[in-house]
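Standup, Tuesday
Yesterday: got the pipeline producing C-alpha cells again.
Today: sanity-check two examples.
Blockers: none.

Example 1:
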Amino acid sequence: MEMVPSEEKQLVPREIESAAEEPRVLCIVQDTTNAKTVTERLTLNLPASTSLSKLFEDVAHKAGYVNGTFDLAWSNTPDMAPLDQGSDVSLVDSGFEPGKKNFLQLIDKDGEQPQIASVNSSGLDDSSQDRFIGPLPRDGTVGCSSDYSSPSYSYSSILNKSETGYVGLVNQAMTCYLNSLLQTLFMTPEFRNALYNWEFEESEEDPVTSIPYQLQRLFVLLQTSKKRAIETTDVTRSFGWDSSEAWQQHDVQELCRVMFDALEQKWKQTEQADLINQLYQGKLKDYVRCLECGYESWRIDTYLDIPLVIRPFGASQAFGSVEEALQAFIQPETLDGPNQYFCERCKKKCDARKGLRFLHFPYLLTLQLKRFDFDYTTMHRIKLNDRMTFPEELDMSPFMDVEDEKSPQTESCTDSGAENEGSCHSDQMSNDFSTDDGVDEGICLDNTSSTERVLKPKITQEDIRKTYGGSSGSRGYYSSAFASSTNAYMLIYRLKDPSRNAKYMEVEDFPEHIKRLVQREKESEEQEKRQREIERNTCKIKLFCMHPVKKMMMMENKLEVHKDKTLREATEIAYKLMDLEGVVPLDCCRLVKYDEFHEYLERSYEGEEDMPMGLLLGGVKSSYMFDLLLETRRPDQVFQPYKPGEVMVKVHVVDLKSETIAPPVSVRAYLNQSITEFKQLIAQATGLSAETMRVVLERCYNDLRLLYVPNKTLKAEGFFRSNKVFVESSDSSDHQVTFTDSLLWKLLDRHGNTIRLFVTLPEQSPGRLANRTSCPKASGDSEDSFEGAKGSRKSVEAILEESTERLKNLSLQQQQGCSTSDSQKSSDHSDFEHIESPAQEPDSAPQPAPLDDRTRVASGGSASGGASDPENQFPSEERSDSDMNNDRSTSSVDSDILSSSHSSDTLCNADSGPLPLANGLDSHSITSSRRSKAHEGKKETWDTAEEDSGTDSEYDENGKSKGDAQYLYFKAEPYSPEDGSGDSQKCLLVHVDKRITLAAFKQNLEPFVGVTSTQFKVFRVYANNQEFESVRLNETLSSFSDDNKITIRLGRALKKGEYRVKVYQLLINDPEPCKFLVDTVFAKGMTVRQSKEELLPLLRDQCKLDLSIDRFRLRKKTWKNPGTVFLDYHVYEEDINISSNWEVFLEVLEEPERMKSMSQLAVLTRRWRPSQMKLEPFQEVVLESSSVEELKEKLSELSGIPLENLEFAKGRGTFPCDISVLEIHQDLDWNPKVSTLNVWPLYICDDGAVVFYRDSTEEPMELSEEERSELMKKESSRLLKTGHRVSYSPRKEKALKIYLDGGPTKDPGQD
C-alpha cells in the first residue's frame, strides 16, 4: 500500500487520503458481549467505499478483539442477522446510509465470547510502536481510519494494556495529585532503580503497612502488568489512610515532602537511607550583609524543592518565566528604617542587605510553582492561572553564588536540561488538580525504546506549551484565558551528567527478589483474569418462585449460571437457591420465561432441558427484558405448556348465592380468539356452563367490562399479556338486569374496594356503649351471608355473657357521673369479639346481608344517641393513653401514602374451594378506590376540616353527627396474631369498604371498643412500628391498603378548635434535660394560665408533681431547644401559634416568674472556669433589651467578674450545647465585636439561647500528659452519653498525614 505524507507530516495510506473527498458513513457499535461494555459505544467514521471486511478489521482494532471471533448485526433488526464478515461489498451497497448514524451491535459468534487481542496482535511488536501515556489518538491513525469519536472514551476492557505500552493509575476519587506524583517518581530512573534494589523483609514488617514495599509493588505492576490501569488503594492503605482520605484534595508538593519523610524513616539503616538527600537535596546560603562595614552573617540551609512565586504580593502582574521567578527568589532585600539590622561589628543598627544564594543544586531539581494564593479582597483561597513559561533546558549558572563558584559543591551545577539520549526526566512535569475520568495515564516524554530506536514523540512542544497557563496576551492577575487544571504546578529537572544519568532497569536485569515479586503478581493477575472470564460468561437474571410453604409468597432472588450450563442444571441451581429441598421434589419444578411486571408466563421450555443457558437466554447480557420463574406442581399434577404468543388469564369464579369469589384459575388463550371460544375454554377449566356464562374483564382499576359480543376477539376487548376476569354462570334473574345495576356488578364493586385491616383494641375497655348501631335486616334470602358464622355462634354467646357482666360492673362504678337510665342501656350484645355485623341481635339466628342492605353507616344520632357527656373523663383512659405514647411521635395530619398490596397468584391450577368474600378475599383485590354507581350524582365529601384548627370535628355546632348516610360494607371478626403479640390485647380482622369515612369507621368500631367514637383514637401503624394518629374524620380510608395495621387507644377525640399537646419537663441542669410528662388537649382561645390550671391535676395524678400554678411556666419546644417563654395572659391561636400534636416545655421555677413582657429576653448562661477545667451549672439571666452591655453587666453582677475582664461566647448546636472542657477555651468565638445580641455572629433573638462566659485573666489549668489523657477519656464518655461529638473543629481542610504505624489512633469519642 502506497504511503503519502499527511498534513501532520505523518505517512498515511493513499486510500485514506482520497477517502476524505467521498461521503462518510458514521457507524456506532454497541458491544453486547460483556456486561462491562454494554453501555459503551465504539464510533467509526469511514469512507462510504469501505468494505465490510475492512469494517470488521477496524472494529476489532478499536474494541481490542481478535478479528473473526465476533459478529456484527443491525441493532434495529429483530432477528439480529449478522453481516457477512468476508464480503468485499462496500458499506453503501450493504445498506449503510452516508451522513446518518448507523447503529450496529457487536455480538457473540456461534455462542462464543470474542477473544481479547494480545498486545502484539496488531502485527507490530512493542519495539516498533510509538509509546506514550495519555488518551489514545482521536484523529486518523494508521490501521484504523476513524476520525470521529464519541465524547466519552470507550475502553474495551480493563484487562487490555493501553496501546501506548504504559499502564495507567486509577483515580480513587480525588487522588489525581497522588497519581501525578507516583507517575513522576516511576518515570525517574534513579528513584525506580534504587527502589527495586531495596529488598523487603516480611519477617520484620507487615507488607500491608510497608510504604516502600507497596511503592515497589506498584512500580513493578506499572512496568510489567498487562492491565490498562492499576489501583492505588494498597499504597494509600500503607499510608494509614481509610476510604475517606480519597475524597480529600491535597497539595502534591506537600504529599511529596511527607512521603519522602516517611520513606527516610522506613529506610533507616539500609542502603537507601540517604537516597532522598542524594537525589533531591540542595544547599543554599541565607545571609545578611552590613552596608556600612561589609560584615556578613550567614548560615547554610538545605532544601528539597524551591518554591517560586507566580505573582508577587501586591503586584498586578505575574512573572513571565521560571527564570524571572528564580531571579526574584535570590533577589536581596534592603533592611533600613525601622527594619535596620544590628551589626555585631559596628555594634549598632545599620542598613543591611538580606538574601539567599544557591551553593549546591541537587541531582533532581524540584521547582514548585506557587499557583495557590489567598485573596484578601474575597477572603478566599484562589488559584493563579497566569502564564509562566519554562525551558526544556534550564541554565542555573546565573543563580549560583559567584563567591563560592569554585567550591567543590558547585562545580557540577552548571545547568540542567534535556538529555539527547531521550531520557524522559530531563524535563518532567507533574500537575496538581488535574482532570481525571477514572483513569490517569499520565504524561511521559520517553522517546526511546528497548532497541534505542528514536521515534517521533507523541507529546509535542505544543502540548507542553499548553501547560504554561494564561494567554498569549496580557499577564494580568485575572486575565487568564485558560482557567483550567492543566497548568504546570511542579517541575523536576535532572542534572546533565552522562556518568550519573541512569536508564530504566529492564525486566531481565531485575534482582531476584523483584523477579519473585513479578511472578507472584503475574499469577495473581492470571487468577483475576480467569475470574473475570468466568464473570463474562455468567448469565445473571432475576429468579422468582411462588414458595409452596412460606405463606405462598412470591420470593425473589438472582440466578447466576454459566452460559454453558444446561437448563436442567440451571433448574437444579434454582431449586437449591429457593430452599425447596425437602419441600417439593426436583422433578416437580421447572424454569419458565416470566414477565414480573405483567405477572405473565411468556413460555415454557419443553424438550429443551439439555440446551445451554447462553443460547436459551440469548447470550450473556447486563440485563434481560424478561425474568425466570421456578414453577412448582403437586406430584399428581402435570405442567401446562406455555407457548409464545399466548396471553395468561386469571379466572375468578363468582358465586352469587354465597356472595363469594374463588381463588384464580390460570387459563391461557390467544388474542385472536373470539369471546365464544374463550367462554368454552373457561368452561373446560372451571366446569361451568358456557351458555349462561357472564365474563367480566377487569382492565384496570375503576374499569369493569362485561364481554357480551360473541364474535369480538380478545384483542379488540383490550386483553394484554396478563389479564384478570370474573365469571358467573347461573339461572338467576340477575342476567336480565343492566350490568351496572346487577348483583354481579355490586359484588365486584365491593370486592374491588374492600380492604383487610388488622385492628388492635385496648387491653381494657372501661367505657360503656350507650346505644348500638342499628342495621336493617334482610328482606329476602335467608342464606348465611358468610361461611363459618353458624359454627361460631356458641362461642360468641359465651363471650357476650362475659362482656355483659364486665360492662355491668363498670357501669355501677360510673353511676355517680352518669344517669342510671344510660348505664342500664348497655345490652348483652356489646362484646369485643362479635363476629357478625354489630346490628344483629345476639339471640337470633345470623341474618344474611344482601348487597342492597349492607351495614349501615347511620347519620344523625342513631349511632350514639345516648352517648355520655364528652367531658366525663375516666382517669384510667388518660393514664393508658399517656403511658403508651410516652416515646411515640404522632402527626396531626394522616398523610398516608396511597399504596396497594398485591400478592401473587398461584401459577398452577389448584383445586381449592371458594373462599368467603370477607373472610378470604383473594390476594389480587384492587386496593385503589373505585367509585360506586350507587353514589353517582352525589357530591363526595373529602376533607371538611376547620381551617383554624387543621382537624376534623365529628359533630356540627349542635353536637350532631355529620357522617354521611351511606351503606358501605363493614365486617369484623377476632383473630390471633401468629407472633403471639396479641395475647394480652384483643385483635380484630376487619374487612371494610375503603370509601367509608374515618368517622363512620369509628362508629362501626364502637361495639368492639366498648366506648363511643369520641372516647377513642385511631392510630395507623407503619413499618418499624411507628404510629401516627388519623384525625381527619371526613377523609375516606382510600389511603389504606390490604393488611395495614391499626391501633385503637382510649382517650377523648378532639373537637373543633382543639389540639393534642405533648408536655415535656425542661431540666436545664440534668444530664437528660428533656423528660416526657403527659398528653393533654389545648383549645383555641384558651389562655396559657387556663391551660396550666388544667395541667395541674394531670401532673399531680400521673406524674406525682404537686406544683403551684405560679411556680412553673410553659415555653416553646423546638426539638430539644427551649424557646419563647409563654406568659399567663397569652391566648392560643392569637398570641401563640399552635398546631396538632404540638410539643411544649414545662419548666419548674425556683423563684417567682421574672418574665413579665414580650420585650424581655431570657438567656441561659453558664460560667467556664479554665483554672478548674469545669463548667458551672446553668443560670437564667433576664434582659430588658438586646444590649451586649446589659448582658455583660448582668453576668458581672451574677459572677463577680470585673466588667472589663468578662468575656462571653454563644453556645453551638442544640441545647445544652455540650462541648469538651479541653476545647471550649479556644474553639468558641469569645468576646464577639458586636453591640447587640440580634446581629451576626450571635443572632440571639429568642428566649433559650445558651451563653458561656469567663474571666479573661483566669489562666487555664496546667495538665500533664496523663491528666490530659484521663480528662479526655472522661469527656469522651460524658459527651457520648449526651449524643454530642467529642471534638469540634471549624477547620474544613484536613491536614495530610502519612502514618508509619499503619493508621491513626482513633479517639473513642469520635464518630
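Example 2:
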Amino acid sequence: MEIPSSSNANGFDFASYDYLQSHHVSSSTSTSCFDLALDFLAEHWVFKDVEKRVRLMKTCFLYVKKCRRRRNHEALLEHDREDRCNIMSENLRRSIICFRIQDVAIRMIPELQPIYFEYIFTDYLLDSDIFERTATRSKEKMKMLLETDLKKSCAAIFIDYYSPGDPRLVMDLIMCLIENLNRVLCAGELRDTLRNRLKLLRNLIGFVTMQGLECSQLTDLLTYTVVAAGSLISICLSDYDDEQAVNRMESEIYQLIHEKINLHDLQVRETFVHVLTASKKQPRSSYDLALQKNEDHVVGQFIGSLRDYLMDLLGSYASFQVPVKDQILRLHEEIRCLAILLKQEEKLGDEIKDLIRVVVSDVGILTFSLSVNEIKEGLPEKTDLGLFHLHKVLKYMVAEVAHNFPLKSPYSSFNYPRPNELGCMDSFLENLKELARCDEADDSIGFQQDRSQMIQKDLVFLRSFLENIKEQRYQNGKLQAFWSHVMEAAYKAELLIDLALVGDKCEDSLDAVSRDINLLKIEAPEIHNAQTQRVNKTSLHIPSQLAAAMHDEDLVGLDDEVEIITHRLTRGSKQLDIVPIVGMPGLGKTTLAHKVYNAPSVRSHFHVHGWCRVSQTCSKHSLLVQLLCSSSSESSNEYLKMNENDLALKLRQVLLRSRYLLFLDDLWDVEAWNLLEKSLPNDANGSRILFTSRYQNLSLHFKPNSEPHHLRHLTDEESWTLLQRKLFGMEDCPPALSEVGSQISKLCQGLPLAVVLIAGILATTAQDSWEEVAKSLSSIVLEDEYCMKALELSYSHLPDYLKPCLLYLAAFQEDEVINVRRLLRLWISERFVQQTEGKSLKEAAYDYLTTLINRSLVMAVRQRNVGGAKYCLLHDLVHEFCVKKAKEESFLYAIHSWNPLCLTGPSNPHRVCVSKARELKIWELTLIFPNLRSLILFGQDDFKHEEEDLGILLPKLLRVLDIGNLDFGDSFLMEVVLLVHLRYLALKRITYIPSAIANLSRLETLIVKYPRFGIELPSTIWNIKTLSHVRALNYRKVYKRGFIFPLENLEVSPDLDRLDTLDLTIDPSPQSLQKILRKLPSVRRLKCMERWNSSREATRNCNEILEFDGLSQLESLHLFRFHGCGFKFPLNLKKLVLSHNRQPWSEISTIGKLPNLEVLKLLEDCFVGEEWVMKEGEFPKLRVLKLSELEFRNWTAFSDNFSHLKKLVLSWCEELEMVPSCLGECETLEMIVVKRCRESVVDSVKQIQQEQMDMGNEVLKIEINSMIHPFPQKNNLQKQSQLPQKQRRFLQKE
C-alpha cells in the first residue's frame, strides 16, 4: 500500500505509519484493533459512550475500505470539489481515511489494556475515577480526529462513493448512528423523529434485500441512505459540553430532517416505491430462504416502520379533511392487521406466507404514494381502490388463520357489563350530547348527527321506561328479557359509534341497531300494559337472607375485646346507651357479641335480656316477636297472634323500670331502629342496646356521639391457635404439619370465618395435600356457601352506583395497598361517579369510597393529615369475591397468567387487567379483546419493551390505559395518539409528549411514572380542554420532575380551565410563571419545581418573587428548589410543602399570616439560619406541622401559634435543642413523632406529654423512633461535631 510522507499529504501526519505496521495491522484489511478496543471498553459502564463511538468508527472504516467511486456523480448532491485531495488517487484517498480512523483505535489500546488487566486482577474493584480519566482521554483522541480535515474528507467519501456488494454494511452503519444519537441527543420528539426515519431506511433496505433484490437495483436507495448517514457521522462522534453547542447541533439536525432526511420528499418516495415494486417481482425462493434463516423479524420491523411513517404523517398535518383522515386511519388499521398476522407466521400455510410477502410490499407502495397535497386536498381514486383491495385480501387472510387463534370479531358474542346498567346508559347518553356539541364546533368529526340524535332521543325514552320497571323485572321474565334487549341494543349502538370515530365506518350495522332501538321504544308501552297487572298481583320480591343460628363458638384471643365490650355494657353513663360492634363479614362480630351477652357478669348485671336477628330485610312484627320470646317465658305462639301495636306495647311493659340489655344482630340500616325506638324506655338505670353491623357509622344515626367498636382481626398466633383447636381439639398439632398449618393460618389474614371454613376442608384432606390447599386458599374458602352468601349479601345491598366501584377493585393485585387518589381518578375516568350538586367529581368519588369503607368492604390503611384515607386495602376474601363477581358480570377480567390459548374469560370484555405483564404480548390483546375499553398492567419489577417480542398494538377503543412498569425507554408510545376515546393515560419514563397528543380530545388524566427528566409538553396541549389531572410520579428521595409547558403563543392559546392537579417544572422567572398560571385558573393542587438545567443564579434577587396569589382555587402547593426566591401565596391555601428553597427564617412570617393554612411541611434546606421565632397570632388554623432535615438550633413560639395543632413531626433536625414549652398548653395535640433528633428534644417532648396528662389529656401519643447523642468535641481523626449535617446523617443512617 502506498503511504505518503507527512509533508505531502495535505496536512495529514503519517509519521505513525511505522507504529501501525509494528502492530501487524494493515489499514486496508484489519479490524482487530477495533475489536480489541471494544473488548476492553465493554468491561465498565464508564466507557459506554466511548464504546458506541468506537463501534461507529469501525463501521465507517469498513464502509470506506469497501466503497467504490460512483460513476453518475452529477446526479448527486453538489459539494465543494476543491476540498477533495485532487492529487491523490482514489485508493490513496480511501487508505488515508482508513488509516486515520484506525489510528485512533490503535492509540487507545496501550491505555486501555493495563487498566483492563488491573481491573480483572483486583476483582473488579478499581476506582471509577481511573476509568473516567481514561475515557476522557479517548474522547479527546476522537475529537482530534475530527478536528483534522478528515471530517470533510469522510463526508465526501459518503457522497462520492458507494458499497456495491454489501447493503448490510449500510444497515449496520445506520444502527451505529442510531445508537450514538441516543447518546448525543436528549430524549425528545426530535430524537425520536430522526431515529424513526433512519430505522425506516434500514428496515426498507433489509426488507427488499430479503426479497432477493440485487444490489444494482438498490443504487438510488443506498445512495440516499449513505448521504443521509454521512451528514450525521461527525455529529455522532462529537461531544457537546455547553448549551450553545447543543443548540447548534439540534439546529443542524432540524435542518437535516427537513432537507437531507426528508422522507416525505417526492423523489425520495418515488425511490421507495421503485424498490418495493421491483421486490414484488423477485422469485419466492429468495423469500423462503430468508425465512429459513429466521429473518422473518425483518418483515415485522419494516411493518413497524410503516406504522411510524403514517404516525409521522398524522402528527405533521393536523388539519385533515374528514375523508382523508378516515382513509389514513383505515390504512393504519390494515398495517396493524398485517402486523398481527405476521406474529402468527409459524402457523400459516405457504399460500398465506406468500401473500404476506406481496401484501407488505403493496402496503409500503400505498403508504409511500401518499403526498402532502393529497393529504391536504383529498386522496385520489386509485389510492382508495388500493385500500379497498388491501382490505379484501387481509380479510381473507384473517379468516384463514382464525382457526389457529381465538380471534374475535368486535361484534361477536356480545356480553355487556351488568353492574349499574342504567348508570352506563346515562354515561352513553352524556357522550352523545358531547358528540353533538363537538360536531357543531368541529366538522372534522364527520359523524352523521341526525342518526345519533335519533338514537339519543329513543334511548332517553327507554331509559325512563327502564327506571319504572327496574324492581318489577325481577318477578317477570318478559320484563327482564325486554330490559336485556334494550341494554344490549344500547351497548351495540355505543360500540358502533365509537368505532366510527376511529375510522371504522359501520353505517349499515348502525342503521340496523337504530331501527332495533326504535322498535323497542314502540314495544315498551305494550309490554308495560300487558305485564303490570300480573306483577301487581304478585308479592314483593324479598332478597334471600343469610340464616345462621347463634352458636357458642370458642373465642381465641379477643379477651381484650370481650373486656372492652363488657366494660361499656356494665359501666359508664346511667342513660340508655348504644354499644355497636362493627366490622367486615366473617370477622366474628356475632360470636363476640354472643359471648359477651351470655357472660355471667353481664347476665347478672341486667334484669331483662333479649335478642333478635335483624338481617337485611325485616318486619316490625318479626323483630318484636323475637325480642319478646327471648326476654320472657311466654310461648311464641301467643306473640305470633298479636298485632304490631300490641306487641310494641307489650315489649315496653316488659322493659319498663328494668335494667335491660337488648342484642340486635346484623343491623343493616336505620329502619330497624326506627321500628323499635318507641318501645325502648330510658329509665336512667344503665340499660344498653348491643348490636352488630357491617356499617361502621350506622350508630351515628341513632346517637350522634356514639363510638362504634371496630372489631380487630386475629393476630397470626391467634389464627394458628384457632385452626389447631378446630382440627385437633386439645391435642397438639403433629410436628410434620406445623409449618404448613401455620402458613395456612397466616393466609387467612386474621379472619375467623376463613380459619373455621379452612379447618373444615383440612379435616377431610390428606395431610400430604395441605400444601395444595395453601396455594388456593381464597378460592377454596369462597366456594363455601356460607361465606359466599355473606359477601353476596353485602354486595346485593349496595346501591347500584357503588357496585361497579367495588368490583373495579378486582383490577388491583391481591394484598395491594391501593393509592386512593389513583383509584378515584380511575373511577371518574370509567364514568362510575355521578355529578353531585355542590361537589366536585373527586369529592363525590371520595364519598363513594367512604361508603364502601363504612360498609366494611374496604379497609382504610393510612389516613392523610387532612382529607381522609390515603391508601386502602381489600381483604383477600373480598378481593377474590370481586374477581369472581366481576368476571361473572362481564365487568372486568383479571388475568393472572398470560396464555392466550387457555383464556376462559368472557367474550369481548370491557376491562382487562394483567398481573404478570412481563409475560404479555400486547398485540394479542387486540386479537382476543377487540372491544377492550380499559387495560391495566401490573408487574413487581421494571421490564423493558423489546420490539420483536412484545409488539405494541393497542385495542383502538381504549378509554383507560395504564402500562404499569412496561418501559419504552424515553420515547413516547405513538400508537397512543390514535386512541381518541382515551380518558386516562399512565406511561413510564417518557421525556416528552408529541404534538399529536391533541388527537386525544377526551383525555382527563395524564400520568408519567418515574420520569428521568422534565417532561416537555407541546403547544397543542392547550387544545385538550378536558385535562384535569397531570401528574409526574417521582421516586422518593430523588430530584422532583414535572411537566414543562411551552411559552410560545400563549396569548392565543385557550385556557386549561378544568385542570385541577398539576406537577409543573419551570424556569423560575416570575414572568414565565405568571404566563402559565394565568392559563390554569382552576388548579387546586400544584407541585412546582425549578427546571434542572435552569440558568438562573442561585442567589436572591429582589425581583424574583414568584406569585401564586392569583390562583383563587389553590388549596395545596408544593415548592421545590427555588433557591433564594420569595413567594406570594393565595389566602385560601390549606397545605404548603417547601423544600430546598434556602430562605431566611424571617421570611416565614409570610406563611404564618395565611388564615386557612392547615398543613405545613418544611423540608430539607427550605429555611436557613439558627433560630425560628414565631410571632404571636401566626398560624391560626395549623393542624399538622412537619419539620425535616432543617439546621436550626432554637425555636421560639407562643401558645396561640398551636391553638389547633393536632400533629407535630420532627425528623432529622439534629441541631435543634428543644421544642417550645408552650406546646404543653395545646389542648388539641394528639401526636408528636420524633425521629433522629437530640436527646434534649426527646426530653422536652416527654415533658410536654406529662403536662398534657396533668391537664387531663390522655389522647396525646408520642413516638420516638431514634435519637442522636452529641458528638465528642474531638476525635483522633477529626472534629466530628464540625462535620456538615448531611455527612453526619449519612454516617449515622446505617
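Quick observation on example 2: The longest helix spans residues 90-121. The domain at 558-710 is CATH 3.40.50.300 (Rossmann fold).
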